[in-house]
């Protein structure tokens, strides 16, 4: 029998029931799945390699040491503090900020510009939640860009990057001010300034392009009941499956710093693809990028235990770069006065129907089927890119 397992680090040092704890060490696996206990309570790893275990905190877990048992021996790591859950299903963007009185502030929002009813949430020490609402919905902004800018692709790209920066800088600013002791009401009031500044810029500078929006005749929902619009919806759905699926497993497979870099590269990818979107056949570029990203996932499927970090960063760049190009499919097929509704439908495809990718990822990860997960998500991207190419051909084959 060889040397037994060694636990070098338990992170984070505190978690709640259902939260995930990473155990870093050496020889953490043996001939079978290792037996993990948190405070004496059995816990089943969802991801297990020789140097890293990812373990959900089980129900009824209590604070205490973390142990790993393999056929070569037993190792004991540092103690894990099991906390009390105050709120659930918030999906915070970044780590929460804690005020001096124990009040917790966090932001909840999706990526790619997804909006939620109350992106800023205040949690009192006794678990009461109070939300603060957002500004205009993103389909409206995308519709405005498509109708008022001479180069809408670039507008889509900068719109996506701006949303990503806002999601990152907002929590940082709120957390910093609360850490300095500012009253939460003052901090909440200051959040009025960014949208007010944006409105002032919109009214003061304006945007060039098409005729005034008020001159457009009202649109009918029936105008969207076409084969090409259905194909566009499928493009977004299959892309959404890959999007939600990958954002479910990637944080589990790469360190937090690497995942932040991945997201930053994704924001840059939106700007780059936005410039490419204004070229003659953006559907072909979208197909090529989808093919490239899907091929990376296929490569991950062949060797799921050794995820090459630079390849993961490249995948993040490619994944987020798809959105501006996908938006050009809408502008090519949908009349200007119906694009607000059309973009709303695409959001339903990505964030509604496409969210099945997250459920799929959770199911396959729980069964240890990472290779199958990579393959399915890669195939979803290939289908999405192929459908986009079909939409582009229909658009450019139309007379005029």
Report the end-to-end length measured between terminal Cα atoms.
76 Å
- What form results from the Cα inertia axes? globular
Q: What is the average of the pLDDT values?
A: 79
CATH superfamily of the largest domain: MFS general substrate transporter like domains
Radius of gyration: 23 Å
Low-confidence stretches: 110-118, 133-137, 208-214
- SS field, number of helical segments: 11
How many domains in all? 3
Protein model, in words:
It is built from 11 helices and 13 strands. It has helices spanning 138-148, 152-179, 184-190, 193-205, 227-253, 256-277, 282-302, 309-333, 339-352, 356-366, 370-397; strands at 6-11, 14-15, 20-26, 35-38, 41-43, 47-48, 52-56, 64-70, 73-82, 97-98, 104-107, 120-123, 129-132. The strands form 3 sheets. A 5-stranded mixed sheet has the order 2-9-8-4-5, with no helix packed on it. It has a 4-stranded antiparallel sheet with strand order 1-3-7-6, with no helix packed on it. It has a 4-stranded antiparallel sheet with strand order 10-11-12-13. A hairpin with a 5-residue loop joins β12 (120-123) and β13.
């Amino acid at each position: 029998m060889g040397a037994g397992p060694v636990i070098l680090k338990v992170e984070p040092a505190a978690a709640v029931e259902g939260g995930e704890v990473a155990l870093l060490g050496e020889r953490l696996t043996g001939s079978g799945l290792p037996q993990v206990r948190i405070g004496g309570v059995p816990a089943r790893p969802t991801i297990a390699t020789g140097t890293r275990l990812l373990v959900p905190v089980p129900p009824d877990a209590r604070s205490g040491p973390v142990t790993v048992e393999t056929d070569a021996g037993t190792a004991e790591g540092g103690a894990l503090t099991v906390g009390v859950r105050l709120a659930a299903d918030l999906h915070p963007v970044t780590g929460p900020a804690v005020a001096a009185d124990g009040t917790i502030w966090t932001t909840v929002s999706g990526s790619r510009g997804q909006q939620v009813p109350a992106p800023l949430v205040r949690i009192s020490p006794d678990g009461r939640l109070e939300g603060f609402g957002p500004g205009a919905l993103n389909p409206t902004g995308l519709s405005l860009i498509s109708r008022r800018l001479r180069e809408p692709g670039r507008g889509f790209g900068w719109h996506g990057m701006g949303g990503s920066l806002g999601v990152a800088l907002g929590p940082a600013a709120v957390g910093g001010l609360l850490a300095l002791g500012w009253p939460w009401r003052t901090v909440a009031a200051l959040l009025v300034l960014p949208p007010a500044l944006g409105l002032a810029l919109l009214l003061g500078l304006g945007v060039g392009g098409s005729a005034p929006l008020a001159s457009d005749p009202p649109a009918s929902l029936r105008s969207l009941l076409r084969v090409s619009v259905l194909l566009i919806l499928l493009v977004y759905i299959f892309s959404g499956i890959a999007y939600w699926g990958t954002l479910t497993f990637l944080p589990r497979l790469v360190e937090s710093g690497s995942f932040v870099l991945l997201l930053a590269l994704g924001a840059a990818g939106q700007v780059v693809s936005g410039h490419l979107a204004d070229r003659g056949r953006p559907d072909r570029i979208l197909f090529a990028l989808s093919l490239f990203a899907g091929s990376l996932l296929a490569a991950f499927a062949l060797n799921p235990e050794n995820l090459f970090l630079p390849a993961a960063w490249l995948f993040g760049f490619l994944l987020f770069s798809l959105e501006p190009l996908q938006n050009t499919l809408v502008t090519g097929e949908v009349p200007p006065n119906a694009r607000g509704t059309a973009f709303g439908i695409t959001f339903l495809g990505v964030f509604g129907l496409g969210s099945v990718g997250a459920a799929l990822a959770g199911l396959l990860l729980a069964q240890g089927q990472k290779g199958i997960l990579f393959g399915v998500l890669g195939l979803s991207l290939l289908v999405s890119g192929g459908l986009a190419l079909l939409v582009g051909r229909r658009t450019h084959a139309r007379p005029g």
